[in-house]
Amino acid sequence: MQKLVVIGAGMASGRVLEHLKETAPDAFDITLFNAEPRGNYNRIMLSPVLSGEKTYAEIVTHDDDWYGQHGITCRFGEKVLSVDRDRKVVIGEKGEVPYDKLIFGTGSSPFIIPLPGHDKQGVVAYRDLEDTNAMVEASGKPGARAVVIGGGLLGLEAAAGLRLRGMEVTVLHIATHLMERQLDEAAGYLLKKDLEKRGIKVILQAQTQEITGGDQAEAVHLADGTVLPCNIVVMAVGIRPAVQLAKDCGLTVNRAIEVDAQMQTSDPDVYAVGECVEYMGNLFGLVAPLYDQAKVLAKTLLGDADAFRMKELSTKLKVTGCDLFSAGDFAEGEGREDIVFRDPGRGIYKRLVIQDDQLIGAVMYGDTADGNWFFGLIKDGTDVSEMRDNLIFGPAFQGRAQADPMAAVAALPPEAEICGCNGVCKGDIVAAIEAGAGDLGAIRATTKASASCGTCTGLVEQVLSVTLGDDFVLPTSQPVCGCTDLTHEDVRRLIKAQELKSQPAVWQELGWKTPNGCHVCRPAVNYYLLADWPLEYQDDLQSRFVNERNHANIQKDGTFSVMPRMWGGITTPDELRAIADAADKYKVPTVKVTGGQRIDLLGVKKQDLTAIWYDLNQAGMVSGHAYSKGLRTVKTCVGTDHCRFGTQDSTGLGIKLEKKLWGSWTPHKVKLAVSGCPRNCAEATCKDVGIICVDSGYQVGVGGAAGMDVKETERLVDVPTEEEAIEWTTAFIQLYRENGKYLDRPYKWVAKVGLPWVKEVLSDPAERTALNERFEISQSVYRKDPWAEHAEKRAEYYQPLADLTQEAAE
Amino acid sequence: MDTAIDTPARTFIEVAEVWVPDGDKLVLGDGNYGTLDAFAEASRRESFAWGEGLPGKAWAEGRPVVLKAFDGSYFKRTEAAKEAGLTAAVAVPVFSGKVLKAVLVVFCADDDHRTGAIEVWKYSSGVMMLEDGYYGAARHFEWVSQHTHFPHGQGLPGGVWASQTPILMRDLGSGYRFIRADSAGKAGLTTGIGMPIPVPDGASYVLALLSARGTPIARRFELWDARSARVGKGEPSAILTDGICAREGALWVGETEEPRRVAAWQGLIGRVLGTGLPVVESGTPGLTAGYETLIALPIHLDGEIAHIVAWYC
Asked: Which DSSP string corresponds to A770-799?
């Protein structure tokens, strides 16, 4: 009988033993080493043991009886010190064992981030029963706190388990969404929401700095200054194959022990299986491929032909009530098409990724029923072109005609719920229509349907249409884009009403039809979010137009224009010298005085942008935001300082206004002007806000235009003091910021809402104060020079990858 | 396994019955009365209007009702219950949206040895508070429970509330050291099963059954997931997601194996799926995993049977 020695009693090697004992029980005399003082257990079920939803006894795969019945010599709790391949012996702490065939099943070790304090008591990994028991022990103290570092599968399972055991739990994750390897942003958002419903705090983009305390870990410190007191720190940031023993005995080891398709290592009598294995550059962490490897290895040992093949993998998170599924490749890419289904009310998100008529990826949250069917389509490379229309609805809908939404609404029974927020059924809406409610507003007023979150608006309109026939005319308001049926106004209202503070939240809760918007809706949603939640929402550069991303206007030859701010149109000899020097230094071909009273440097190369910004910064100048949907210029005349006709200090007021308003984002660009007398040299009466100074004070006009449309401002208010002029102007801008549709200039917005409404709102002093306060809160984030930030942090981004002109010359 | 309970003296629940709407009354559907023939007979003669008796009260008030003293109460079968030695009852209404499908009523008999707990937790002021409960001889545990609350996601009530999913906890006393653990251990409580109880007004209730080694509520527990979002949109079916059995051990399977699945009308769980009503079945060990009695309770969410909780004793 051949001697087989197995190092490691994990799930993969355990499965090898099962296959061997089932097929050829007497083929090998087996000795099994395990450093843990126990045999094979279902390690991936440790999470429910941690949560209390399973016992350890339930997850034992092979107990002492099993090993005894199968004649396996167990050396548990004994570390293997070395392997002498020349003598073919395994040397354990308690002596040598000779082998004919040897299997490495050494698994993996948790990766510990070498943070300051990582070696304190109370810092645990999450790998084995000892770790699990340590966490259970920590949870025994009432009110105990845990910090889990790592928002992947293991970290989140640990967090949920500890929470169920009564701990206050915070998860720290370095990426922008949870489980970023397995989930896209939208599914990650829903998972975060679900975990937060369980009382778990999740901090994304968390930069963990150190763990402090005495001998025992007492707090985790983040780079932003946050301090999280804790009794235990769980590090679940990944695993690394345990390969030192294999390395020491001279086997070929790359990232893990290299094996061929028969699981044979560089030594023909030595095999490896499980997480310690590297096959064709791949490492393994999920159970399904490990079991495949085990099957192949058992056959190989018995002389039967078989070969391990890589397969697509799917993911399951073991947190009760969190249903998610992901498989395949769901990154965005050229030639890939997304199919998205969302049900905001039920927290459901499904996304399929199709390329070349084949399903290549699937992500699901909340409804995973069809996950295995989609997984099969991915694995088999099935041509899905014939089922494209109904694919997202799963196998139950294949072969059916594409659903007609109106027919579906007509077929709904009277008790079918239309508005989940207010519990309004189709029958209630039909009754209201029969009683005279003929449009959406009347339905909202009489039944409250669609009056809360508004996502059922389309459905309510369909009920109106089905009931009234052609008496009902769909409202003419246009949706933001093809990604949604909602209008800009709806989106703005819902972002506020539902307190949506991130793009994934908007996509999911408002039922976006695409994974993450398009070039039309993303800039709008980005603006609405930053305007409504300036402190919570982080501006997304990727959702901005190219000029806003580059902080400069791109010209038709691919160069850029650079325009420093000149407060109120006033400059100095030093500034002019700096501009001239910059123009010389960077060989700027055109220097132009603009209509907004500043100087434009045209023809700057992209790679020179940060350097020219830096030079201008050094001279005290900041970006003029000539590219932004925000405050552009405040044009002024010379006012009382120099002009015979000037009635007030128009230049001073212009500078004050510009210094207050600069940097703020608005739905579209905003231009101001202040003229010192009714002769209006600053052309204030065609600006978004134009102030005319008069002897009695200041006439504030709004809603002017001098572009494709030409329009004179309308008088908002006359005020006696400069302070009031600034207060009213700021309040008007903030009201526009909070209510305007993206890409509507103020004159268009005022035309829609009506100047009387604007006047009514702003004439309330408390409202004006509140608007000014909200504006200042926003400016605490956005009143800053983007040039300075970029010149400092992102210089490398603007450098050319290579100087091809020189290469060509050589 | 340490949750296995062999040859218990008596079970914690003596009687289980299902009352179903028939016109404007509730009439008896299934029932298991054991040897309590007289009480069975009294029950068969009974029916309850809206608000009448214990089942009618659970219907009218749209919430689970715990009744710990029959004398002088609205309870209608007091004499028969007293003769049968029954001292407490819990009525659990089964609603689908606003529609009452049935009322499950379980009865317990007081003595100094019978330990266990049937608890009703309700959301109040941001936490789950004990609405009422029956604890048999576990007096200290009752006191602790009355003075405990569970935030979102914590402990059995908080976990069920946060996930809207039934949860089966093992080792309430020894391994599971949540707030009430010490007391649970002293009371001999081992296994706990919690389930959301949907009611028409949208309030959040959780029913928890805590089982003790000597007088178990059940010797086999099963959690079935029937949500179409999990099992598919074809014919109604359910998969066994968790369970433990005194005889068979763990009833769940690993993630590379297919879980047990039943379709509507397949067996007793299939009957629950088909009818949407609770099932109480006794005297048919071939159908009830070798046990004397099965009680299976459906949980309706979002217009479908979402979960079935079954216990066998």
From this structure: HHHHHHHHHHHHH-S-HHHHHHHH-GGGGS
Concatenating the DSSP letter of every residue in A441-489 gives HHHHHHH-TTSSS-TTHHHHHHHHHHHHGGG-----PPBSSTT-S-BHH
**How many domains, chain B?**
1
The dihedral of CA A44, A48, A52, A58: what is its sign? negative
Residue A654 to residues A569, A722, B174, Cα–Cα distance (Å): 9, 10, 74
Cα A148 from Cα A145, distance rounded (Å): 10
A803 in a structural domain: no
**Whole domain around residue A283: which residue ranges?**
2-108+241-301
Q: Are residues A46 and A94 in the same domain?
A: yes
A630 in Cβ contact with A617 (< 8 Å): no
pTM tops 0.90, yes or no:
no
Determine the residue type at B181. Answer: A
Residue B210: list chain A partners with CB under 8 A.
none
Of A55, A288, A394, the CB nearest to B171: A55
User: Average pLDDT for residues A222-250, to the nearest whole number?
Assistant: 95
User: Does the interface ipTM go beyond 0.95?
Assistant: no
Instruction: Determine the residue of chain A that is closest to B231 in CA distance.
Output: A369
In a domain, A796, yes or no: no
Task: Determine phi and psi for A58, rounding to 5 degrees.
Answer: -70, -25
Q: Which residues of A touch B (CB under 8 A)?
A: 42, 44-45, 52-55, 57-58, 136, 139-140, 142, 160, 163-166, 197-200, 287-288, 291, 316, 320-323, 346, 348, 366-370, 393-397, 417
- CB contacts < 8 A (A, B): 115
pLDDT over 80 (residue B197): yes
Structurally, how many domains does chain A consist of? Answer: 6
CA–CA separation, A551 and A562 (whole Å): 9
Mean pLDDT score of chain A:
91
Counting residues of chain A whose pLDDT is more than 70, the rounded percentage is: 95
Pairing of strands A95-98, A89-92: antiparallel
Pairing of strands A714-719, B13-22: unpaired
B65-74 pLDDT, tens per residue?
999 989 888 9
CA–CA separation, B191 and B262 (whole Å): 25
Query: In this structure, are A432 and A465 located in the same domain?
Result: yes
A42/B254 Cβ within 8 A: yes
What type of residue sits at position A577?
Answer: R
Nearest CA in chain B to A320: B163
